[in-house]
Amino acid sequence: MVRARIIGTGQHLPEKVLTNLDLEKMMDTTDEWIRQRTGIKQRYVAANGQGASDLGGPAAARAIEAAGIDPKEIDLIICCTTTPDYLFPASACLIQHQVGATKAAAYDVNAACSGFVCGLTTANAYIQAGIYKTIVIVGTEVVTSRLNWKKRDTAVLFGDGAGAVVVRAENGDHGILSTFLGADGGSGDLLILPGGGSRNVVTKENVDTGVHDISMKGPELFKKAVVVFGEAVQQALTATGLAINDIDVFIPHQANTRIIYAAADRIGLPQEKVFLNIDRVANTTAASIPIAIDDAVTQGRIRSGSIVLLAAFGAGITWGSIMLRW
Ligand SMILES: CC(C)(COP(=O)(O)OP(=O)(O)OC[C@H]1O[C@@H](n2cnc3c(N)ncnc32)[C@H](O)[C@@H]1OP(=O)(O)O)[C@@H](O)C(=O)NCCC(=O)NCCS
Prior knowledge:
There is one protein chain. This protein is of the alpha/beta class. The protein is built from ten helices and 13 strands. The protein has helices at about 20-25, 30-40, 50-65, 90-100, 115-130, 150-155, 220-240, 255-265, 280, 290-300, and strands spanning about 1-10, 15-20, 40-45, 75-80, 105-110, 135-140, 160-170, 175-185, 190, 215, 250, 305-315, 320-325. Strands 1-7-6-4-5 form a five-stranded mixed beta sheet, sandwiched between helices. Strands 8-13-12-11 form a four-stranded mixed beta sheet, with helices on both faces. A hairpin with a 3-residue loop joins strand 12 (about 305-315) and strand 13. Helix 3 (about 50-65) packs across helix 4 (about 90-100). It is globular, with a radius of gyration of 19 Å. It starts with a strand and ends with a strand. The structure holds coenzyme A (COA). The site of coenzyme A has 21 residues, from helix 2, helix 6 and helix 7.
C-alpha cells in the first residue's frame, strides 16, 4: 500500500531569546505565574522585518537536506501559517524560491494552531490519490509581530519559529496511518485577531482601538481544548485499531502543559509518552508540531517503527490528529 512517509525534518528559530524574567521587566507578570500556568520558560522572537518565510525557508532547507533529495524533486510546498509575510503572495511561494524547488506548486494553509495537521493531512490525501509523490510541509510563524506586549494574558504565551517535514510516497507499512480533522466555527470568538483582514481593515482611526490585538477567552478555550484533544486521539485510535498502549510518542500542539497533561490523563496516556518542548519555544502556533517532531527525532525519542500520534487544536476552533508509523 502507498503511504505518505516523513523522510526528513528540520527547524529554524530566531536568534533572540526572551525569557520569563525578561517579560517581568516589560509587564505585570512573574516567571512563577507563567511557568506554573503554562510550562513556558522562554520563547524566541524574530527580528523586526523578519517574515514567516525567513524562518520557514531555512527550516524547509534543513528538512530537504535531511531527506537527501534534490529540491527539483519536490512536487508541492504547503506553508501553514497565520502570520504570512504578506496577505499575498503566499509565503509558500517565497519558500519555493528560497529552496530552489522550481518544479513545485506552492500555497498557504491557515488553520491557526491546527495548520500543520491540516497541511500534512492534505499532503497525505495527494499522495494517496497518486497526484503528487514528494511534498514539503512547513509550519512557520512570527506570532510576536501580532502581539501587544502590554496584554499579559496573551503576550506571555507565544513565540516565533519554524519547522518542516518532507513526505514522500512509499510502499510499505511506514508512514501515515490515519488522519482526522474537526472544526467548530461557532466558537471562533474564543481566539481571534479581529483586525487586518477584510472586515476590519487597518485605518488611522482604529490602530489604537485594540482591534489589531489577539483576543482570547483563555479559561473557556482551555476547557474546549482538553475535550477536542481527547476526541482527536480517540478518532485516531478508532481509525487505526491501535490501543493507547501502542502509542510510543504523543506529540501534541504545544499550547499549555496543563492542557496537554489534562488531555493525556483523560485518554489514559502516561505522561512519559508525551513529548514537550513548550518550556523552550512556547506556543509557536502552526510551527509547534513540526518543531517538536524535529526535536523528538534529534533527541532519539522517535525511531524507525515508532508509533507517533500528533494532535492539535487552535483558533477556529479547529482540531485534528494524525497517527503514523515512523
Ligand atoms: C491563559 C491561561 C494560561 C490562563 O490560566 P488560568 O489558570 O485560566 O488563569 P485565569 O485566566 O483564570 O487568570 C488567573 C489570574 O491571573 C491573571 N493573569 C493573567 N495573565 C497573567 C500573566 N501573564 N501574569 C500574571 N497574572 C496573569 C489574571 O488576570 C487573573 O487574575 P485575577 O484572578 O486577579 O482576575 C489558560 O487559561 C490557558 O492556557 N488557556 C488556553 C490558552 C491557549 O492555549 N491559547 C492558545 C490556543 S492554540
